[in-house]
DNA sequence: TTATTAATGGATAATTACTATCCATTGAGT
DNA sequence: ACTCAATGGATAGTAATTATCCATTAATAA
């Protein structure tokens, strides 16, 4: 179910990439957060344990992870990309108030894909579904304090 | 049904923006294409008739159109934004082979919005649905020549 | 129609996320 | 352990977008 460190190392090696502490650290950080960090957020998360970490390394590492299927890139309409270690294709929802981005797991999208394929005559291979609104926490705040 | 020049002028004025030939020209160009141009494509489309047109003007104009609801911005995962004068929220599909972007009109998305609202507990206000694949034309080419 | 004034267009500089380059260092197979 | 290509970090470069500046223009009032 959950990808562990050992298999991440194997996947890197099997694609001809070296296994380095930095790469394992980046993957570990991404794996252990639900906040869909961008490169700079990852960099700042890693700085305390890896003071020599470079932002360029984060970018290069994420490009590799994207290539070999260890992470996916999100393009939610902000000024920077976010990253997600969950590899099943799933929609995301962003709170317009606080900016948090959440996964929407267990979303059933086969009917959509069929509908779009029929309407477009495209042979579909992928999708990116982004939703926008107000998260439960921000809704609560509004009710209490506004 | 279709937005004409007169009402574009009215909408600009009603939001306190001046009505200028450049703005009408940008809107006209965007209205009369289905290829979802980015700023540079729009600029190049307009150059023949408006040799003095500036790329900065296109950007500024599109920002205004986005604000006042005369166009929407698409973020399809390319390195630049594309624009669409069709204001009903609708999905888009991009051909991975030739890069064209098509509208998917008549897409029924109420069921999706309900499903996502239920799964996320967000109060949803918007969505951006992007699909990727191979367009009919490129499928045909592949079958014939590859 | 003209005068007045604030908005605008175009030129250009600045910003910023991201990518490429360079070289000393390091991981991994021999 | 040895060898060497891959890597990390520093830094420069790229490219889309945004901000600035000022002469010009559109809109309102007279």
TrEMBL record, chains A, B:
Which terms under GO biological process does the entry name? negative regulation of DNA-templated transcription; regulation of secondary metabolite biosynthetic process
Residues binding Fe cation: 110
| CDD domains the record matches | Fur_like
Its required cofactor(s), as named, are: Zn(2+); Mn(2+); Fe(2+)
Q: Any signal peptide, and if so, which residues? A: none
Which Gene Ontology terms cover its molecular function?
A: DNA-binding transcription factor activity; transcription cis-regulatory region binding; zinc ion binding
* Keywords of this entry: DNA-binding, Iron, Metal-binding, Repressor, Transcription, Transcription regulation, Zinc
* InterPro entries the record matches: FUR, Fur_C, WH-like_DNA-bd_sf, WH_DNA-bd_sf
Q: Which Gene3D superfamilies match?
A: 3.30.1490.190, Winged helix-like DNA-binding domain superfamily/Winged helix DNA-binding domain
The superkingdom listed in its UniProt entry is Bacteria
Residues given in the record as Zn(2+) binding sites: 95, 98, 135, 138
User: What does the note under cofactor report?
Assistant: Binds 1 zinc ion per subunit.
Instruction: Report the sequence similarity comment from the record.
Output: Belongs to the Fur family.
Query: Which PANTHER family does the entry mention?
Result: PEROXIDE-RESPONSIVE REPRESSOR PERR, ZINC UPTAKE REGULATION PROTEIN
Q: Can you name this protein?
A: Fur family transcriptional regulator, peroxide stress response regulator
Native organism: Anaerovibrio lipolyticus DSM 3074
Recite the lineage of the species.
Bacteria, Bacillati, Bacillota, Negativicutes, Selenomonadales
């Amino acid at each position: 179910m959950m990808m562990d460190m050992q298999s991440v190392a194997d996947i890197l090696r099997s694609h001809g990439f070296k296994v380095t502490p930095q790469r394992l650290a980046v993957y570990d950080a991404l794996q252990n957060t639900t906040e869909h960090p961008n490169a700079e957020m990852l960099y700042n998360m890693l700085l305390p344990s890896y003071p020599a970490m470079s932002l360029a390394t984060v970018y290069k590492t994420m490009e590799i992870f994207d290539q070999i299927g260890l992470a996916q890139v999100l393009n939610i309409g902000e000024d920077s990309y976010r990253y997600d270690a969950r590899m099943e294709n799933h929609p995301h929802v962003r709170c317009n108030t606080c900016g948090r981005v959440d996964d929407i797991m267990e979303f059933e999208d086969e009917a959509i894909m069929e509908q779009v394929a029929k309407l477009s005559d495209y042979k579909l291979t992928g999708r990116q579904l982004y939703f926008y609104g107000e998260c439960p926490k921000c809704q609560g705040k509004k009710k209490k304090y506004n």
